[in-house]
Amino acid sequence: ENASLVDEEEGLSAQTRRNEATAAKLLEVSADREGFVGGLREKLAKKRQELKELRNKEQSRLAGTLAHTQVALLRNALYNWESPHGLKRICWEKIANADQNHVSKLQWDNGEIKHAITDIFKASGVHMPRWSETTWSHVFRHSNIESSNSFSHHETEAFARFCFEVALRALDPLGVGEGLEGGE
To answer: Which domain of life does the UniProt lineage start with (predicted)?
Structure first.
C-alpha cells in the first residue's frame, strides 16, 4: 500500500510540475501578449496624435484659404461697388425686397435692416459674418449714419457697404491682402 501511495504521490508531483510548467508558459505568453498589446496601444496613441495634428493642419490650411478667398471677395465687392454690375445695384434690389411696409425706410427693430444686409452678403457670395446681437448693435451704432432705428434706402446701402468694410477688417485687420481686388 505504501508503494501505491508513493506511486500516486510521484504521479501527483509530476502532474504538479507539469501544471506549474504550463502555468509558467501561460504567464510568459500572457506577459508577451501584454507587451505586444501595450506596444500596439502606444502605436495607436501615436497614430491618433498624428491624425489629430494632420486634421488641425488641414483645418488651418482650409481656414486660411477660406479667409483668403473671403478677403478677395470682400475687396472685389468694395472695389467694384459702384460699377454697373457691382453690389450697389444688388443692394437696391435687396433693400427694396426687405422694405416690408413699402415706405422707403427699413426698420432696425423689426429686422428689415439685418435681413437686407444678410441678403446682400448672400448675393455677393461672401459669407455673412456670424455676428452676435451685441456685434450687430455695435456695427449699427458705429456706422456714422445719422438715423434712429430706421434707415432710408440710401442709408441702408451705406450701412451695407460699412458692414462689408467691417467684415474685411475683421478678416484682414492689417491690410495684408491689399491688391487682391479685381482689376489690379
So the answer is: Eukaryota
Mutual orientation of helices 2-79 and 153-171 as an angle, nearest 10°?
130
Q: What is the largest CA-CA distance in the chain?
A: 121
Query: Which residue type occupies 120?
Result: I
Q: How many CA atoms lie within 13 A of 120 on its CB side?
A: 31
Distance in angstroms (rounded) separating the CA atoms of residues 139 and 145 = 11
Contact 71, 180 (CB under 8 A): yes
- 35-84 residue pLDDT tens: 888 999 999 999 999 888 887 776 676 566 777 888 889 999 999 999 98
The pLDDT, as a whole number, for residue 135 is 92
Round to whole Å and give the CA distance between 99 and 97. 6
pTM higher than 0.70 = no
Full set of structural domains in the chain with CATH: 74-171 (1.10.238)
Q: Which residues pair with 151 in a beta bridge?
A: 106
